[in-house]
Write a structure and sequence with these properties.
Blueprint: H1 21-30, H2 34-45, E1 52-57, H3 72-78, E2 83-86, H4 91-97, H5 111-118, E3 120-123, H6 131-143, E4 148-155, H7 161-171, E5 174-179, H8 194-198, H9 204-222, H10 229-241, H11 244-262
Parallel strand pairs: 1-2, 1-4, 2-3, 4-5
């Protein structure tokens, strides 16, 4: 697919599957010259002052505990890490976020404008791609950005760690695998009490749920160094009690609703984050 041999490593990242013809066609529509875009990003990334974190999460299904990572971008943004989060807009994702803003309403927003304003951008496409194709497509989008310094791959897909290491070295970007367990089941998100989830007063069910979410998201914080497992878990757990995640989500939602109502980008909207 690529003339530059090192780029063909991308095609071998999932041990059981390469890119489908459907995805190749979509990439051709998305990028005039994908290979040139990837190589240009590689060069410019080395001199870029911006350090954006990019989270790619595979499809979140009903009752799966890996929905915890939906809150990862808000956690990182609270720690002043600019972050892009990319995951399919499943019913679980929509059920949670639609309580705060109209996720399905497509807006003509520039990602960089949102990042500059809020340190966070949620890319939640309504996609018909398979899990494997979505993974490849999202990773390629991340590698095409000149400002991405770390990529987190949150998935249960069987990944070739050696190939990922080669990709990491070639693109000069850190890539972390967060392996998920589809059998790890929690309460259905349709039954969540959001006040108990985000605010201080919790019963035992939500104490346990927040503890699980904190333990899972701590894996991401550990990649930054400076924390041990206990410290990282406690830091995230505190955010579920001190309303930090709720506040960041509320500001993001208000921003999106303002842009939606006025049909303008953030730089044109009279909204202060």
């Amino acid at each position: 697919m690529f003339v530059t041999d090192k780029l063909n490593v991308i095609l071998e990242l999932i041990e059981t599957r390469s890119l489908t013809e459907e995805l190749k066609d979509q990439l051709q529509l998305q990028y005039v010259n994908l290979e040139a875009t990837l190589l240009r990003a590689k060069v410019l990334r080395e001199i870029s002052k911006a350090k954006v974190q990019y989270i790619v999460q595979s499809t979140i299904q009903t009752k799966q505990a890996d929905v915890a990572y939906l809150f990862a971008p808000f956690i990182l943004a609270n720690l002043n890490h600019p972050v892009i989060y990319n995951s399919p807009a499943t019913s679980t994702v929509l059920n949670i976020l639609n309580r705060y803003y109209q996720v399905e309403s497509k807006q003509n927003l520039k990602i960089d404008d949102v990042l500059e304003a809020l340190n966070i951008y949620l890319d939640l496409p309504d996609t018909r791609l398979s899990d494997e194709d979505f993974f490849y497509f999202s990773l390629i989008k991340a590698l095409c950005r000149t400002d991405v310094s770390q990529i987190f791959l949150v998935t249960a897909l069987p990944l070739n760690k050696q190939k990922l290491k080669e990709l990491e070295q070639f693109f000069k970007v850190k890539i972390h695998i967060i392996q998920t367990n589809p059998q790890d089941i929690i309460i259905d998100s349709t039954e969540w009490n959001m006040r108990k989830l985000f605010f201080k007063n919790k019963d035992q069910q939500y104490i346990d749920l927040c503890e699980k979410f904190a333990t899972l998201n701590a894996q991401i914080l550990l990649s930054y160094g400076g924390y041990n497992q206990k410290q990282a878990t406690q830091l995230v757990e505190d955010m579920f009690y001190a309303e930090h995640i709720y506040e960041k989500l509320s500001v993001y939602a208000e921003y999106m609703q303002t842009c939606l109502q006025h049909g303008v980008s953030r730089k044109q909207a009279t909204f202060l984050a």
